[in-house]
Amino acid sequence: MSKTKEVKETPLMKQYNTIKAKYPDAILLFRVGDFYETFGEDAIKASKILGITLTKRANGSASHIELAGFPHHSIDSYLPKLVRAGYRVAICDQLEDPKMVKGIVKRGITELVTPGVSYNDKILNHQQNNFLASIHFENKEAGLALCDVSTGEFLVTQGSLDYIEKLLQNFKPNELLFEKSKRNELTELVGDRFYSFGLDDWSFTYDYGYESLTKQFDTISLKGFGIEDQHTAIKACGAILHYLSETKHDKLKHINRVSRIEEDNYVWLDKFTIRNLELYNSNHENGKSLIDVIDKTVSPMGSRLLKRWLALPLKNSTAINERLNAVEYFVKEQDQREELISALKEVGDLERLISKVAAFKVNPRELVHLKKSLQVISEIKEKIKASSNPTLQKIADQLNPCQIMFERLDNELNEEAPVSVLKGNAIAKGVNAELDELRNIAFNGKDYLLQIQQREVEKTGITSLKVAFNSVFGYYLEVTHIHKDKVPQEWIRKQTLTTAERYITPELKVYEEKILGAEEKITAIEHQLFENLVRDLADYIPPIQLNANLLARLDVFCGFAILANENQYNRPQFDEGFAIDITDGRHPVIEKQLGVGIEYVSNSVYLDNENTQIMMITGPNMSGKSALLRQTALIVLLAQIGSYVPAKAANLSIIDKIFTRVGATDNISSGESTFMVEMNETASILNNLSDRSLVLLDEIGRGTSTYDGISIAWSIAEFMHNQPVNRAKTLFATHYHELNDMTNLFPRIKNFNVSVKESGNKIIFLRKLAEGGSEHSFGIHVARMAGMPNYVIERANVILKKLEKEHEFELEGTDSLVINGTAKIPSKDKSELQLSFFQLNDPILQQIKEDVLEIDINTLTPVEALLKLSEIKKLVGG
Fold first, then answer.
1. 465 inside domain
2. Domain range for residue 657?
3. Among 85, 371, 614, 858, which residue is least crowded by beta carbons within 10 Å?
4. CB neighbours (10 Å) of residue 859?
5. Mean predicted lDDT score pLDDT of the chain
6. Are 144 and 86 in a shared domain?
7. Which helix (H) or strand (E) holds 592?
8. Same domain, 709 and 761
9. Closest to 563 in 3D by CA, of 324, 346, 395
10. What whole-number distance in Å separates Cα of residue 748 and Cα of residue 128?
11. Are residues 325 and 391 in contact, defined by beta-carbon separation less than 8 angstroms?
12. Is 403 domain-assigned?
């Protein structure tokens, strides 16, 4: 923009540059007449993103600037594209009527739309929250606030950096605010996973945050919200409210409470577990996530609530059973469920609708939909009032049809109201007498003019007389020259034409003033009446928000019931013990992706803290070990959000933490190897164990050498077993068969294997869990199934046999030492530790060994010896 200041600017561009200087990091949409224009760098960006033409225009003497624009009525189409591209967009509107102003029209920013702040339906994903998050770092902790202005939800918490990172991973905010001076801390915590925006540090102060919150909620303290002592969280909240004010989102009556996320109330799911269990996104192309499979809701509100429940599984068995009781009711009462679902489909997104009312961004057609929704709420209330389920009866008691507001909407709004109040006909007939009269003049004017014309024809006898209109004279009476002698004296001649004369009358002039002003007055009156209606609606925001939450709960309950009926899920049972007892469990996602006619092989799992704390599971790759681990965690997770589960039966205890170390994921961008990632994740698990944790460990130690891997895996399993109190229930899948010997040394480690059937040189994966360890990994069989060349397969078999013969790694239970409950792996003979050239596991060196052993040195000539040495040198790349 600097080049535009080197020359004399036009008045318009001077105004533009002044406004742009206040929002340098946003794309500025500048209203000029019927268009939104962008200039300079903004125009270059907009033209590429929106696919609109980039041109140039004069900007004072000898200067040009890039220009790209679109019609103002197309903003709903173009704005979402800019925001989705990751840009903040400042909308600059004309604040005066150009007709009433001489010179430059006053303009100003009316809204700043960002990825985390929007009410626009085309920007928002109706099945997901659009969270604006704010994080405040303080020592080794952080405060976090999450606000969705489109729904009015405001959540806060504070805690360790691990806890905050886990919540960010779960809630996936669309925009993250942070202190400019703490950018390094933010990068270290979340990298570049979120769109972020830095604010001045003063907006994260405690006094500012406390004052902003009490002012927002009109209270004298924050004790009623349970966050009075959450100083770090309050600082994060203050920054969010400041940002909303800065982005011109100051109508926030729908944000009327703040909810504290109580860490102790919900299951701990760290970022690795969320990713590994594929709760929201699949790690594979064209794969499905858990939410894709279990979401059977029919309303946006229900879909968003389901994601919230999945992010925050319950640890309270009473609360879980309340949900399960409601689901059970709908599983049994299918007819009532179908009626309720049909009604819920009519409600739509009540939560975001009432938020638009608070922000004065609602349109007439949306208010008609709100009226219909209130009517449906009344019907739903009656449907569930008679149910035998206490949870549903409680919901029925709380539902509020807002009868008075319903009647106002019904009486004051036209049933066929348009999207924009400016298009007219939004307000019903009979609401305002002046409006009705003006509408009669405007819309029945032709009839009245015909009456004047007919009356004057009869009075004067001029049969060719007609009433017409033009922009210069307005309405007039036209008489041909042949009849001009019949014209009454009181008529006033205004224009003479070749074939006729044009006249006006006092009556026509009075009516003209009425009819020409009617349309403008109609628009003004309708607009005022509509504003009054919206303003009065704001008093009903809290009850309608409560209705939205209650309907969302009903939607999720019905969705869970459909899921159970369609997929043969069963109700889990909870007790106060420590056992997980799953009979014939299935993986909820994998079973839906199997081909037609293929049945999922179910498996039973039993874990407790006294007898079977660790299940050591061996078996070949592709046999289903990883699926078994994941399905166990998903069954527990589904149960604790209140859903039926994919199992014949599930008798469970409450789990407080779920940890997973599954799969190998390089973090190359931060310079971490597969093995380092694996060790980081495992360390996080071992440092956070509890007696109610569920741990899934898959192929621990495979990122390093065989002996290192076995040692690490053994040590980890041993550490978890020997915990005096925090005996986490663990599924430990491994291809190290040496770990099978642990069951002889540790009483709570039990061996299992995923069975296979050998048929000749082939194997058949039975995918059935059986007691006892597996002796083979069948890796070469899997390579054959993958289509590896026969030469490679045969050579691998040869090498395997030689390696097995020469490098047996045995753990004899009788020779192992146990010191203070810790098993010691017996060491080899010193002679076995001697490094041998021919003990290296390299096929080339093995071939050299075979060649050397075949040489008869008694008959070898010096020349032949040199030739043989030359061959060996070539083999090793010399």
1. yes
2. 573-777
3. 858
4. 7
5. 85
6. no
7. none
8. yes
9. 324
10. 43
11. yes
12. no
State pLDDT tens for residues 176-188.
999 999 999 999 9
Residue 475, strand partner residues: 469
> What are the pLDDT digits (tens) for 380-427?
999 898 888 999 999 999 999 999 999 999 999 999 999 888 888 899
Paired tokens of 144: 């976090």
Joined together, the tokens standing for residue 550 give: 């209650």
- The structure tokens listed for 117 are 């702040």
Tokens found for residue 580: 């997980």
Does residue 11 lie in a domain region?
Answer: yes
Residues 6+ apart with CB under 8 A from 677: 664, 665, 666, 667
| Inter-helix orientation angle 40-50/75-84, to 10° | 100
Q: What is the distance between the terminal CA atoms of the chain, rounded to a whole angstrom?
A: 63
Q: For strands 107-113 and 35-39, give the pairing.
A: unpaired
Q: Are 147 and 114 spatial neighbours (Cβ–Cβ below 8 Å)?
A: no
Please, what is the angle between helix 231-246 and helix 206-217, to 10°? Answer: 70
CA atoms of 691 and 609, how far apart (whole Å): 8
Q: What CA dihedral angle connects 521, 522, 527 and 533, to 10 degrees? A: 120
CA angle 145, 147, 153 (to 5 degrees): 115
Which pTM was predicted? Answer: 0.81
Tell me how far apart the alpha carbons of residues 339 and 379 are, in angstroms, rounded to a whole number: 10
Same domain, 669 and 747: yes
Two tokens, residue 150: 């489109």
Question: Are 396 and 384 within 8 A, CB to CB?
Answer: yes
Sign of the torsion formed by the C-alpha atoms of 709, 711, 712 and 716 = positive
- C-alpha 115 chain-centroid distance: 12
CA contacts within 13 A on the Cβ side of 444? 8
> How many angstroms separate the Cα of 663 from the Cα of each of 412, 616, 660, 682, 699?
61, 17, 9, 12, 8
Check whether residue 104 and residue 250 sit in a common domain. Answer: no
In 340-473, DSSP assigns E strands to: 466-470
Contact status, residue 757 vs residue 723, Cβ threshold 8 Å: no
Kind and range of the H or E element at 381? helix 364-385
